[in-house]
Every structure is written in C-alpha cells, then in structure tokens.
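Hi C.,

You asked whether I'd gotten around to modeling the 173-residue construct. I have! Everything is below, sequence then structure, no commentary in between.
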Amino acid sequence: MCAVRVYVPATLRQLAARAPGDAATPMAEAGSLAYAVTPALREWYREGDIEELEYAAMTHAAGASLRMLAALVPREPAPRRVVLAADVPDRGVRPEPDVDTAAVRLAVPLFVTDVASLHVDDAAAASFVEAAIAALGPAAEGDDDAQFTIDELGDHELQWYGVQEIPALLEDE
C-alpha cells in the first residue's frame, strides 16, 4: 500500500485540545481539509522536484493555518501557524481542486501515530503572523500592500518539531 504525505493546517489551541498523548483521539477528523502533492499542483509547478512540490503543499497548509488563526475567538495571544505532516494511505485522500491546487480531503481520521512531524512558526514570528492576520481582509479586497504583508510571512520558515516535542511546544505557550 502506498502512502501520501499530507500537510494538515492547525493551531496550537487545536493541538492542545487533541490530547496528543491519547493515541485514540484523532489529530484531524475524516473530512478535514489538508494539502498534498496533487496532480493539479504538479501541473501548476511543472519544474519542481518532489521536495519542492512538498514544500509548496506545506506552504499552502501554512496559509490555511493563518486563516484558521484569523477565525479564532478569542485570538491566541501570540499566534503561530501550525502544520502537521503525516502519512496516510493513498486511498485516504481525495483531491479538492476547486478549493486549491494542493487541497485534499481526508477520507480517514489522522492519529498521532500517522504524524511524522510538526512545522510551527518560531515565537519571534508572532508579530508578523498578527500583521498577516490583520491584512487578510484588505488583501482579499485587492489591497496590494496588505497582500505584501501576507507574502512577507513567507520569509519566516516554519520550524521542525518531532511528535514527541508536542508537550514541550504547548508548555511554551
């Protein structure tokens, strides 16, 4: 059976609520939106190798995490984008090209044992994340300066964390 690497957008609040120490609690439910190297992404990014394509999919998930942070009430005090990288069976996803070139829908729940790593903004990026959240509305209305603010967030690489580091990551919040 082949596996597909998926990138699932999340927030630290969601991560804390999922009780990562409990293997029976799904980290993401079946039906959740995730991102992966899809045929549409391959077509869009023709020159990329698999690492570049996976990075592009993770970047799409980071953008979705930003939108999730914007929707949180109350807002997290120092918001940071979170992306879970996980392996699911190839039959466990279906492309959602109408949503995004890299979007997939999980057909199976995602458990902590499926998660290979987490990718999280460094705490120092929180002010840039805040600025990008504030710019989402104006950017959607065509404000180029607001879009530039969101694009600047791409200069802040997500940090890699192992699954075993989730408790320490949550303690830092």
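If it helps when you're writing up: The beta strands are 3-10, 33-36, 82-89, 93-95, 103-106, 115-120, 159-161.

Thanks,
B.
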